[in-house]
């Protein structure tokens, strides 16, 4: 399978230290896609760079997507070799808390909107100009089933992912004239560190999220991301909902407990 964007494409992956971003970085590396891997956990980024550099060229950017200045400075600091981004995977994000709206924690609300929505916008804003100049590029936004369906206590996380859905559509419309592909993947339940973060280290609750059925694995989503970026250049997969077989909707999961 050949990459159609560029013979030696460079991908920029936010949230590459864990879960879906990590699995995507590994799969891209094994397919010789050059990588800019991003996240806040420097130690993990260093270890990953060491591992993936056996297959491809890797550059680390350590920044918090909420920090507008840090985002722009980090991306402006990319050496020439990594500065033409062919593929942007807007993946960094999490849910913080699972509370009924009247009991919601304002810090959690701000984190979800600042990271999942504003962070995605900052990174995109910094990367789009060169894609526009090059008249090529592919942006994949990681949304969620939570951006297609609101579920009990999902409130602000769902709002953040509905925003990602709207931004994905808006980007596709506005970047159409520049020949840039834009598409979203909206997963259901994927077994990552997502629930550890949502439940703030309550490992029992996090583990229970994935018990009694076979959840998606981060590699399942990475496979689809790789499929999307390896379509011929006239093909843009615009919007995908991917669920574990046991999941029918945000609230219907066939668990054997
Ligand atoms: P993980 O918790 O395993 O990974 C989240 C990644 O996002 C980490 O690499 C983390 O890196 C990064 N990240 C989080 N906050 C920030 C921040 N402020 N600045 C920079 N990076 C940040 O979760 P997933 O892999 O599951 O999540 C990836 C995406 O998939 C998210 O957008 C999530 O909403 C979405 N998703 C997940 C589903 C699931 O069931 N797991 C289902 C549907 C969508 P670090 O901590 O090093 O900064
Ligand atoms: C993550 C999946 O169902 O916890 O976006 O919202 S869910």
UniProtKB/TrEMBL annotation:
<dbReference type="InterPro" id="IPR020904">
    <property type="entry name" value="Sc_DH/Rdtase_CS"/>
</dbReference>
<dbReference type="InterPro" id="IPR002347">
    <property type="entry name" value="SDR_fam"/>
</dbReference>
<dbReference type="Pfam" id="PF00106">
    <property type="entry name" value="adh_short"/>
</dbReference>
<keyword id="KW-0560">Oxidoreductase</keyword>
<dbReference type="GO" id="GO:0016616">
    <property type="term" value="F:oxidoreductase activity, acting on the CH-OH group of donors, NAD or NADP as acceptor"/>
</dbReference>
<dbReference type="InterPro" id="IPR036291">
    <property type="entry name" value="NAD(P)-bd_dom_sf"/>
</dbReference>
<protein>
    <submittedName>
        <fullName>NADP-dependent 3-hydroxy acid dehydrogenase YdfG</fullName>
    </submittedName>
</protein>
<comment type="similarity">
    <text>Belongs to the short-chain dehydrogenases/reductases (SDR) family.</text>
</comment>
